[in-house]
Write a structure and sequence with these properties.
Layout lengths: L6 E7 L5 E6 H14 L5 E2 L2 E5 L2 H6 L10 E6 L4 H4 L7 E5 L2 E2 L3 H9 L6 E8 L2 E8 L1 E2 L3
Antiparallel strand pairs: 1-2, 3-10, 4-5, 5-6, 6-7, 6-8, 8-9
């Protein structure tokens, strides 16, 4: 694309069409910066399982009409930032640190890119009502 690097190849599938997988260049540059400045990379972690919110789930979890973005918390592990911050199974996250949630992939990147130890406001819908939780982001262990 006009001679610009858009990603760094990580692996490929040689069977069939030769499909490849790459790290987007913006993510790679953030990782390089952290390696240069700190010598390691820390990734943010919540400790909750998530899934996409579909129309049937939205109805069953009493999500008001008009909310078509967000993700459903399907598990919350004990002794995790999510549990300590008050998250419950069945909560629907609609905003993370003031930013709208588009999908689960977007949300995972947002959490991973958050500084470990940062207190993040997370807006949820629980039992049909909006609520904001303050969650301290943990460190993803490798």
């Amino acid at each position: 694309l006009n001679g610009n690097i858009i990603g760094i190849n990580t692996t490929g599938v040689t069977i069939g069409s030769g499909i490849g997988f790459a790290i987007p260049i913006r993510m790679a540059m953030r990782i390089v910066e952290k390696l240069i400045n700190k010598g390691n990379v820390e990734r943010g972690w919540l400790g909750a399982g998530i899934q996409e919110l579909n129309p049937d789930l939205a109805i069953s979890f009493k999500i008001p009409r008009g909310f078509n973005e967000g993700i459903l918390i399907n598990t919350v592990k004990d002794h995790t930032p999510a549990k300590n911050g008050g998250m419950l199974r069945g909560d629907v996250i609609i905003k993370y640190d003031g930013k709208q949630i588009r999908d689960s992939r977007n949300f995972k990147h947002m959490v991973a890119d958050t500084l470990v130890g940062k207190k993040v406001p997370i807006k949820i819908i629980r039992d049909g009502s909006e609520k904001t939780l303050l969650v301290t982001i943990g460190k993803l262990s490798s």
